Amino acid sequence: MILSLFGTNGVRALANKELTPEMALRLSQSFGAFLRRRSNKKTPAVAVGTDTRITGAMLKNAVIAGLLSSGIRVIDLGIVPTPSLQYYVKNATVDAGLVVTASHNPREYNGIKLIAGDGTEFSHEDEAVVEEIYNSGKFTYADWSQTGELLADPNANDLYVGGILSRVDQTAISGRKLRVVVDTGSGAGSLTLPVLLQRLGCQVLTVGAQPDGTFPWRNPEPVADALGEMSVLIRMFNGDLGIAQDGDADRAVFMDENGEFIDEEIMLAIIGKFVLQKEKENGTKTGTKIGPVVTTVSTSNRLTDIAKEAGADILYTKVGSIDVGRKMMESCAVYGGEGNGGMIFPNHQICRDGGMAAAFVIESMIKNDVKASQFKKMVPEYFNAKTKIKTSPKDPKSVMEKLTADILSPATKKEIGYADADTIDGVKLRFKTGWLLIRPSGTEPIIRIVSESKTKEEADKFLKIGEGIVLKNLEKK
């Protein structure tokens, strides 16, 4: 299934250049037609929200117009984190959701993400149907007397924060009064994360926590190099933990009490360790096997080792939270996510949730009596290497087809010496001491290459093998 409109995670493009009000209108009309065909209700309802981007109001109004013209009742939630809107859809009497956000993309981008009636992200199959309607122009225009009703609900963020609080031990957390430094990057998490932590009894110091769609403090992606101020404040404030979020707050990254950035792969694994520990305790009481863990083919073996140690199966998907979430639903998984700060806690909701991740990490630190700086030593050590190689626009997939056939040939297997391979997403080669993944980007004309091993030297060696394969196949064009 090849989609030209939807990427790995919704629609994202340069605001008012590629993603224009006209495009947003047409996309929401397509969404409206999809809902009218699928729903048995006369007037389906959709919750709509935005992150803080200054182009959000422009696109949101276009989206609302398209939904209303389709005879859809719209509830405007205002500025909300994506997981807040998803929690609202899951728990309120609405049939779907739409959030205007480009998540971690730079300031000049915006995007549109569709949410299913259970609060999960739209499946790729349903996105394909919406895209087909978009391309055909077969919209559903309601009679003038049945155009949708526009309402507003300012309480979505309160509902969301309350939902997280109900999933953690508030008494244990509030008794410790951890010092937490927060950098929400002027994104949607500015309206929820400081409030959540204060209600948990933490002492909170914020930086960049004012909603501002120009993102004056840093770009929306919370990479280590952009979090220098938070690092300084942790040390000055004698903090226990630092938490930063991306533009729509569906992801969270962490710093320890020394102001050191904790690798996202380590955080994915350590949180998995704590989740499985809790599940094992509950399973011992009920005599049930621990449910599986789901992650992507690009995730470090740290999580794989943690799952195996706990006696849990681990399942792999393509890169992208949509695929992870769907596989979690199919397999009744107890935990899932990606090594980019996107953790999923299915007992709360099946979507990436930066707020839930923050609360769970704090609870786990307290209940296990550990400092954040100890996390690294609590999970297996691996070394990663990564690079990317540009291709022609719209060309990565054709390059991947050629190099996959090359890699899987008996001659290349003998030459490289890998043990086995899978093609879940691109092609992943497993060696006795590590792995190599070569896959096309879902958002850019590039081939991504990632490797991992127990030593840096071997990780670099595997990466070189991957680069050689890609460049050889590019030269064949």
TrEMBL record:
EC number: 5.4.2.10
SUPFAM superfamilies associated with the record: Phosphoglucomutase, C-terminal domain (SSF55957), Phosphoglucomutase, first 3 domains (SSF53738)
PROSITE patterns to which the protein is assigned, alphabetical: PGM_PMM
All residue ranges annotated as the Alpha-D-phosphohexomutase alpha/beta/alpha domain in the record: 5-139, 160-259, 266-379
The protein's required cofactors: Mg(2+)
One record GO biological process: carbohydrate metabolic process
Superkingdom per UniProt: Archaea
MF term (GO), any: phosphoglucosamine mutase activity
Keywords from the named record: Isomerase, Magnesium, Metal-binding, Phosphoprotein
Gene3D superfamilies: Alpha-D-Glucose-1,6-Bisphosphate, subunit A, domain 3 (3.40.120.10), Alpha-D-phosphohexomutase, C-terminal domain (3.30.310.50)
Residues annotated as domain Alpha-D-phosphohexomutase C-terminal: 415-462
Similarity comment: family membership: Belongs to the phosphohexose mutase family.
PANTHER family documented for this protein: PHOSPHOMANNOMUTASE (PTHR43771:SF1)
Protein known as: Phosphoglucosamine mutase
Gene that this polypeptide is encoded by: glmM
